[in-house]
Amino acid sequence: MADPNATLDRIKSSGVLKFPVMVGEEPGYIKDPATGNWSGFYVDWATDIATLLGVKVEPVETTWGNLAADFQANKIDIVFGLNPNPKRGLVVDYLNAPLFTDAWAIVAKKGFEKRTWAELNDPSVRIVVQKGGTMQVIAEALTPKAQIIPVEERPLGVLEIQANRADVMILAVFDAIQVQKQINGEVILPKPMLLNPAMIGIKREDGNEGYANWLVNWVNQQRALGLAQGKLHAAFEKAGIDLSVLPTEFSF
Hints:
Helix 5 (134-142) links the parallel strand 8 (126-130) and strand 9 (147-151). The protein has helices spanning 6-14, 41-53, 67-72, 117-120, 134-142, 154-162, 173-183, 209-224, 227-238; strands at 16-21, 30-31, 38-39, 56-61, 79-82, 92-94, 100-109, 126-130, 147-151, 168-172, 185-188, 195-203. By secondary structure, it is an alpha/beta fold.
């Protein structure tokens, strides 16, 4: 039987906590073009965990669609903001406590009239999604009749809308609010509202039980003391993100 602390001990002995960072995913991941350094609330959380473990952080640039392969190749030790995804779940263990809750939205240019997932499921609608991400799963499940356009990174999806090659992009609502400014558009929460738990993921391997248990304790403290919610509010406010679009019944 594997030592339940094997993964935790491996990370400690390596001296680094490897985590993914992604271009165009502000304010969760922010890359300084002058220095190449990374910041953002996901980076802050990784740094907090690394500090508690007595190791340094090591950012690994990647995309959402490559995360499963990155885990299998031992390129990363932890991921923040994952959405439940059975295919990815074959190689990734999700913690049983979400760090925060999001909702799925669409961002479109002003004047777009469709307000439900059923209305979006139409051959005339062009929907851009990030390839390999949960937004692609949602599009294929709820809007299979629409024209689905996969792209590697969020900025490429923004370009599709700006060039009028797509009508909407499916995003987590906090990301949609950010993109809204870039296209001078609007954020829509299609009905029925789909909640989106933002999970932490670790590599599925023998000996990761102690690591997972320790991280669940960290998540529970972040939520119980309001630390996660406070960090998100501060990050969104600093980025000029207007949270007034969120319905009153929604809480993250």
